[in-house]
Amino acid sequence: MRHSIALCLTLLLAQPSLYSQTLYTPRNIQEAYKKGTRSPDGRPGPNYWQNKGRYTINITAAPPDRTIRGDEHITYINNSPDTLRAPVIKLILNIHKPGAVRYGLADSTYLTNGIVIDAFSQNGQARPFPSSGAVPTWRPFRLDKPLAPHDSVELTFKWHYQISLESNREGMIDSTTYFLAYFYPRVAVYDDYNGWDRLDFTDQQEFYNDFNDYTLTVTAPKNYIVWATGTLQNPDAVLQPAYAKKLAASMTTDEILHIATKEDLAKQRVTRQNPTNSWVWTANDITDVTANVSDHYVWDASSVIVDDATKRRASVQSAFNDTAKDFHRMVEFGRHALDWLSHKWPGVPYPFPKTTIVQGYADMEYPMMVNDGTNEDPIFSRFVAEHEIAHSWFPFYMGINEARYAFMDEGWATTFELLIGREDLGTERAEGFYKQFRVNGYIYDPSQEEDLPIITPANVLRNAAYGNNAYGKPSLAYLAVKDMLGDDLFRKCLHEYMARWHGKHPIPWDFFYTFNDVAGKNMNWFWTNWFFTNNYIDLAIDKVEGNNVFVTNIGGFAIPFDVVFHYTDGSSDTRHQTPAIWAANEKQAQINIAPAGGKKLLSVELKGGIYVDADISNNSWKAPQ
User: CA–CA separation, 450 vs 611, rounded Å?
Assistant: First the structure.
């Protein structure tokens, strides 16, 4: 009997009920806990696994010819306990095909024939690749031999596509400048809670990729410079000696060096004068690669120390049209962003050897690459660049499923955007930007879509419902946790979450339970309040009675706020309330006034700051005259 009781107790404690008894947990996530791939304390489980690929990719771009040609060899490694029979291949650029489901307009400048597979093989044997599918952006195929656990398969593709004239995240920037992204067939993620990733790419939701090793070779005509994800392996083979020397010097200095100026490019002597040059880049344990090709973009570079313990530097580069005034400061902005984000928030050293900020139009992040538009106001340009560079930690340091849980990366980038902005611009202007772009549109729109729970899978959301659940609302939630725990404990929780899930695929429950575990608090009431409800922001002063102010939480979100007491002698007293005030009763809070020195109360007001109140008409009280 004693043995049975002990066994039952052990099994009970092993279940996620310890931390998740009040959190809705989808059935597939419950199965992950049962299988031991995830743990109820937020750690990867003892049976956690993830698959991996090694990609060798060769592409050729010869602007103004719009045809991009490529071939690749993939070694795909099955680390799962399952036998895989029908892998899924992602063909993201098929979003450009007529008839593809997309959340946006598409005209003749956007539409192409997508990716055309010219040849395909499995383990060295040529095979036909399915020429069509129900969803253009992904396609399953049958393996000749099922892929057993801990085995691998060799896949090769040869393909071509026509670059779009006008796109969003990738495409032709001008007739001789191409930004290449999502340009290669890739094996979709196979994970422990959902199996194969079969989500459509709609050009709104973003991406979910494994951590792979890449060797990328981009062949372009002479006088074309290539910038790409990874470390350039052959600078001396593609650059003239003087320019290779300047690039090398930029890796060890705080000074901003002009690697190739407008005048240099006009002389057509920056690159080696072979008919074509093949630029070779490598990057390991990374989720994607991109490249930019241009014959007239100028090139600036510098570096910055991102890890004080090792004195490790990261290269900061920029490629842009000389006419873009703001981009002449972009390396400066990039250096500042990497320095600040590495040392302050999130306060984890930048994990990659470099970043390159390219003048494009997407305002879009990629591993070690940023594609940003140019702006007349350099302050706004810095604001955008900092947000995109912040994505280096979320989702690229951690392999977040952006397509399904966008708030796990966009919400954090938005949070860091505000925190660095307060230092860059001052609190008032930074919070003005934050409210303008992240909060006001949501809080002043009373439509039902605005109040869908943050946990709602992002792949089923569109427009404002997607934007607010990905950016503003989760950022407010993260900042509320920071306010409630205090900076030191919040930082400890955040760093442990990042350490546990670096290079892995976290899901929201891993985040929630890690914070519970590290903080030593069951905060499921807070996670439920912010992530699993239809709450919004609206407080009201219900009454002032005796020495107490009673505040009603009409909207329901557990927000921090200030109570400002004004006295008849002209003085005032501000008392900050953290979200913990709502822990016992999420609908009403009682704040004691107890003015010092016998002061008489004149009025009371509530101030939420970035927590913009939907109705401020009931946020103040005046004493009867």
Answer: 15
